[in-house]
Amino acid sequence: MNALFLALAHLRWTWARSLVLVVVGALILSVPMVTQVLLRGSEQALTQRAEATPLVLGARGSQLDLVMGAVYFSEDRTLPITRAAEDDVWDSGLALPIPLHTAFQTNGARIVGTSLDYFDFRGLTIAEGRQVALLGEAVLGAQVADRLELEPGDTVVSAPENLFDLDGVYPLELQITGVLAATGTPDDEAVFTDVKTAWVIAGIGHGHEDVVTADAEGNITANAAITQFQRITSDNIDSFHFHGSASDYPLSAVLVVPYDTRSGTILRGRYLDPENPVQMTVPVEIVAGLVDRIFRIATLLDAVTLVIGIAALGAIALSLFLAWSLRASEMETAKRLGAGKFTIVKLSAAEIVLLGACSVCLAGVLIAAVTTNADGLVSWILAL
Q: Are 86 and 101 in contact (CB under 8 A)?
């Protein structure tokens, strides 16, 4: 008891050094566990969403980029495809195609132009407000609404993917009509609108001013100017229209939901030709390969963590040794007062036990905090 009292008194006296040692010890103990929690959470989040997405149709190229962009709304991009690819799936009668246009963003959130079928497919429900119904309306994912402190009735303005992608792109003020219930998926960090609204942002759809005007004297003047509206209102919505063939309008990808297993197999077979500019991917297969690579890297990370942990323990041991060396005069005084070698050993052991106990407690708090908020942390990591 006396040894613990003296050890505690010394640790309080050298509180700065003691705090550093406790934090370092806690990190050594918690980092491997935290890494495993996040890796397992990432694996579960990736595989669950991939398993819930049967097929993805997109431009031929990197299948990983296609899946990550279409399923997780990441910044990975492939070349766009045309609406004709969606029409082909409709015409096949084998699956339900869900269009996706994800070329734009607002305030760091992905703008997803899609159809109402997407909400039914993902099981998304409105927690506040109502669903989109008109051109220029949008609903927010739960995290976007919380992060930007927005609610139905507010507005957000679209932006191109980068400053070098301005050709034909016009910022559009989107009217927020609703906020989705939280799902713990990438949908929480997205802004959803009708695919036609995304085409308006891309410059394919626009409105016209009244081409015939009359002045105070009754003179008629023709005005053929086209106005690229930054806001769609009840006064100008009827003037909006689209130019060109609808089959040529761009899409980032198409989610394909086969009506049965046989239909899905037939559809996949139709896109096996490497000369076909469009490809059909199976997200669960692509993500499985990604997860396998992640855990291979994790094995290397564990080895690095072990080496760093050993080095940190060595540094802690060296710090304690130097501290006790500096206290040689104190130990000599203790011996003269009658303290034996065993008493000094108990005093040293007591300090180590107290530091270790504090480190274990802090490590437990860190692990518990990460475990409790694992879903949010994983969603944030996947959104990077």
A: no
